[in-house]
Write a structure and sequence with these properties.
The protein has helices at residues 2-14, 18-21, 37-45, 48-57, 70-73, 86-108, 112-133, 154-172, 182-185, 195-211, 219-233, 277-284, 333-336, 351-355, 410-423, 427-447, 465-476, 491-501, 507-516, 584-590, 592-596; strands at 64-66, 242-244, 273-275, 395-396, 399-400, 405-408, 529-530, 533-535, 538-539. By secondary structure, the chain is mostly helical. The longest helix is centred in the N-terminal third of the chain and has 23 residues, at 86-108.
Length: 623
């Protein structure tokens, strides 16, 4: 039988063409090359990788607490783990060579729109990558047959990101000699093939890239005007926001990944993640007052108000507790934060009821905070449930199965512009950009409200869009936004409103801002160092009464104020984290020689995660 089979095969190949049957390059089931547009859908959907890593990054900005990624919440890292390495994987692998193929094939075919889209996404991904990880292999990244990839320093990566973005714009301004038909509209889940929007997105990338350099000594002369020019050509309204549409479908979706990574169906925002107490203080106007001598909060004696048991700082930046005064209540709190108040969704059109909601935040690594227990991001102190009379349904706001992934917004660009004008001494222009930024974030926030059902404990937002918009209008004309006196307007207003606008989808950019202002560490010289801001595992941070402190109420874990009297791991040598180490399963498995020669701190050093990136230094990296 065996011999007969061999004879049959010999006969078959004797009378057929090898070219026709053995050419693997023309195998329709496993093609070696595909048309450029077919890469597009898969590449854009890989941006879910950002939301993976926000669970590591958001705790470092005190947007989230976590009982899962506790090392990152403690400004350390997971030894021998790929945790916090998904953006690395996304850039090099999930998008990686596919994106390179899309760009190269499109340029060769003179498909300029598709090439421009590819270059814009490449610029965005690499800008994010270097901001999170610092030095990265760039020139060697996709060189065939290399067994070791040398690292490029961040200064060079930054320049290349802008070059890719400008090249994207150049491609998008060319006229295609073909019609794409539905090839782009069906595969571009960001802008549906709209060339003008992709150009605006490319300029937004340039703005974000340059904004992180605002503390460079040559920012005003070298980078500021380029940022202003790019902002003028970037997004013009909140509807221009860059988002990745997802299919949704919840449990009925053909694949779980059709749902948003933070939606209830995928279970990734289980009760292992929760809002941080600092986030609650900022959103509710309850940043505490601390004793100068001891760092303790000033507790109100014999109070029966357990929701406000301590004295509050005289200067609140975002809002205050005078919710019954016109324009003092910030309605974003009812959408961006979770609350266990009103579990059966009653009186959703009643502003007094909504203003009475109570919010609790957890610590860095535990859900119990200073005044109570933080709920999950869906609004209960339980992991997500889908069945029964009490459940989370499809989620709420951007923690919902069909919510898009937000990449960047018009609001963010306006805050970048406001900060730039501030650094140039153009305070009036800064204030106008600031007001546009706050207004835009209200619109972006409202866009994703998915109100729950009246009387039903089945998930959703606990406010209607119409009530939110009414309260937003009052706030925008109130004392923390439009009616803020110009002489009281500060850099803190810009950066803290930006922090709120980025909550929590943009935690990576919020972390950029906090690092470039060196976490408000009190030091002298170019940057903090041991004995100059870092003291035996502790951190000497500016007090809130210091006019130069940017993030009021923000204290790192070892800052020695009440609720923050811990210490860092000895390997940190007193410093908070300034970068996430490269992905373990690639770099620390086979690229160690390249890591070892990095300066000023070796990539194999125990404290490499504290190595301060180039964008933070006023000048160049020390040698």
């Amino acid at each position: 039988m065996k011999n007969k089979l061999i004879y049959i095969l010999i006969a078959f190949f004797s009378f057929t063409s090898c070219e026709e049957y053995l050419d693997v390059n023309n195998n329709i089931d496993a093609p070696a090359e595909v048309e450029g547009y077919l890469y597009l859908a898969g590449i854009t959907q890989q941006y879910q990788g950002i939301y993976y890593d926000l669970r590591a990054i958001a705790p470092m900005t005190q947007m989230m607490g976590t009982s899962s990624y506790t090392s990152f919440a403690s400004n350390y890292y997971n030894l021998g783990s790929d945790a916090g390495g998904e953006i690395w994987r996304m850039t090099y692998w999930s998008q990686g060579q596919n994106l390179e193929n899309l760009i190269n094939q499109s340029i060769e075919a003179e498909d300029w729109t598709l090439a421009g889209i590819g270059l814009a996404m490449k610029a965005y991904s690499w800008d994010l990558l270097t901001k999170v990880h610092g030095e990265v292999p760039m020139n060697d990244a996709f060189v065939p047959s290399l067994l070791q990839h040398d690292y490029d320093y961040q200064k060079d990566v930054y320049t290349q990101v802008r070059e890719w973005a400008y090249e994207a714009i150049e491609m998008l301004e060319k006229t295609d000699d073909q019609s794409y038909g539905d090839k782009l509209t069906n595969n571009d889940f960001i802008y549906g093939g709209d060339k003008e929007m992709w150009k605006k997105f490319s300029y937004a990338i340039i703005v974000r890239n340059l904004a992180s350099l605002s503390n460079k000594s040559d920012f005003s002369g070298t980078y500021a005007q380029e940022l202003i020019n790019a902002a003028g050509k970037s997004f013009q309204r909140p509807s221009d926001d860059a988002t990745v549409t997802v299919g949704g479908g919840s449990q009925s979706a053909p694949y779980s990944s059709y749902n948003n990574f933070w939606g209830t169906a995928r279970g990734n925002l289980s009760y292992s993640y929760f809002q941080h107490d600092y986030a609650v203080q900022v959103f509710t106007g309850t940043v505490p007052k601390y004793e100068d001598a001891t760092g303790d909060k000033i507790h109100i004696i014999n109070t029966t108000n357990y929701y406000h048991p301590v004295e509050l700082a005289d200067k609140q930046i975002i809002t205050d507790t005078l919710t019954n005064e016109l324009g003092h209540y910030d309605p974003r709190v009812a959408v961006k934060l979770a609350t266990e108040s009103n579990p059966t969704y009653l009186n959703l059109n009643n502003t007094d009821s909504i203003k009475a909601y109570q919010y609790y935040g957890g610590s860095f690594t535990g859900s119990t905070g200073p005044i109570g227990q933080a709920p999950s991001f869906y609004g209960r102190t339980l992991s997500s449930q889908y069945q029964g009379t009490v459940h989370d349904g499809t989620g709420r706001w951007i923690y919902r199965d069909d919510a898009p992934y937000i990449l960047t917004t018009y609001s963010e660009i306006q805050f970048c512009l406001a900060e730039t004008y501030w650094k140039l001494g153009q305070k009036t222009d800064a204030f106008e950009a600031f007001k546009r930024g706050v207004s835009a974030d209200m619109q972006t926030t409202a866009r994703y409200i998915s109100t729950g059902s009246e009387g039903s404990a089945s998930g959703g937002d606990k406010i209607t869009t119409s009530v939110f918009n009414s309260l937003a209008s009052e706030y925008l004309n109130g004392p923390y936004a439009g009616a803020l006196p110009l002489n009281e307007f500060t850099l803190s207003h810009i950066m803290m409103q930006k922090w709120v606008s980025l909550y929590p989808w943009g935690a990576s950019e919020a972390w950029v801002d906090m690092r470039k202002y060196n976490y408000d560490i009190d030091y002298t010289g170019d940057v903090p160092s041991t004995g100059n801001g870092f003291i035996h595992g502790l951190v000497d941070q500016k007090k809130d009464t210091d006019d130069t402190k940017v993030y009021k109420g923000f204290y790192l874990a070892p800052a020695q104020v009440e609720g923050r009297k811990g210490s860092y791991y000895t390997q940190n040598e007193g410093s908070p984290s300034y970068r996430i180490r490269p992905r373990f399963n690639s770099e620390y498995m086979w690229n160690i020689p390249s890591l070892e020669i990095l300066k000023p701190i070796s990539g194999t050093a125990e404290n490499y995660h504290t190595s301060i990136p180039w964008f933070v230094y006023p000048g160049d990296l020390p040698q």
